[in-house]
Specification:
It comes from Bradyrhizobium canariense. The chain has about 325 residues and is an alpha/beta fold. The protein is about 30% helix and about 25% strand.
Length: about 325
């Protein structure tokens, strides 16, 4: 029997249930993967609550990314073999012991990662890559302001921003989170509750402001970001865990600034070539030891509600993984 987290009623994480199902036979072109770890992302929380743009039909299993071992390859499935260690990419369905997918959903697992790291890599670092390279076009020497730098995508943005040669200003809500951001290469640290970040950015940049803002928080954070940007700045809208922010068009006009929405997954669906380039780079950097996700919590599958609460309450630093064994 296969265990899976099931959402039968939209709402709080505590409504999710762990259920058992028999394995199903493979169809032509399909592959069976034993899941060893799955990564949590904030969209998983929103999807289970019915507040995400993708709304699967009930019942469904949450989870966008996982890692495990190929255990069976169906007729017509090519490019993969039994025993391969793989990352599994899904729109939902990853919180389970076993999944059946197509080879196109599989990516070889970096040899430098364990299962939890592999299961928490591509979504966060893929979003940061798309934001900073495809959308923000960060160049060496620019000032990058990263909000929520203690979170999964925030830390990924610190990682990639430093690789691109930017001066990174990291903001977070605690010294512990900022310490991790510093260890990942952040040049300047700002705690939200100790100094208004817009004042800190002006102080750090001698009044010039940030060239690029990476914002997964939204709300007042987004609105105040417009008051500490340089000429030609790019404000990258990653998410809105802190609410929906309003863009003051006069501030954008005065600074010649741009607001850019970031949807890494949808961008690939619209233009698959973008995804191929991104994936190649991320896997190469992982193998070279340049990138590695920071996994602060590893919990068993049955504690999925507790794991989601870590994201909701902002207690996680970096990523949270569910372990199946």
């Amino acid at each position: 029997m296969v265990r899976a987290v099931v959402c039968r009623a939209l709402g709080a994480p505590e409504k999710l249930q762990l259920e058992e199902f028999p394995s199903r036979d493979l169809k032509s072109g399909e592959v069976r993967v034993a899941i060893r770890a799955a990564g949590l992302n904030f969209p998983d929380v929103l999807m289970a609550a019915g507040e995400y743009q993708l709304k699967p039909e009930l019942p469904f299993t949450p989870g966008m990314e996982a890692a495990g071992d190929v255990t069976e390859v169906g007729a017509g499935a090519s490019g993969v073999a039994v025993g391969d260690k793989v990352i599994v990419k899904m729109r939902h369905g990853a919180f389970t012991d076993e999944t059946v997918v197509t080879p196109s959903q599989l990516t070889p697992m970096p040899s430098t990662f364990d299962y939890a790291e592999a299961a928490t890599y591509l979504a966060g670092h893929g979003t940061a890559y798309h934001a900073l390279i495809d959308r923000g076009r960060v160049t060496p020497g620019e000032v990058l302001l990263v909000h929520g730098a203690g979170g999964g995508v925030g830390l990924a943005a610190v990682d990639i921003g430093k690789m691109l040669g930017a001066t990174v200003i990291a903001t977070a809500s605690s010294d512990e989170k900022l310490a991790v951001a510093k260890a990942r290469g952040a040049d300047h640290l700002v705690r939200y509750d100790r100094e208004p970040f817009r004042d800190a950015v002006k102080r750090i940049t001698d009044g010039r402001g940030a060239d690029v803002v990476f914002d997964p928080v939204g709300g007042e954070v987004f609105e105040n970001s417009m008051r500490c940007i340089a000429w030609g700045a790019r404000l990258l809208v990653i998410g809105f865990t802190g609410g929906i922010g309003s863009a003051k068009t006069n501030l954008l006009l005065i600074k010649g600034a741009s607001v850019l929405g970031v949807r890494a997954g949808e961008a690939v669906r619209k233009n698959p070539v973008l995804g191929e380039v991104r994936l190649k780079a991320l896997l190469q950097w992982a193998e070279e030891g340049k990138l590695r996700p920071h996994v602060s919590h590893r919990l068993p599958l049955e504690e999925v509600a507790k794991a989601m609460r870590l994201l909701i309450d902002r207690k996680a630093i970096g990523r949270v993984a569910l372990l199946m064994d």
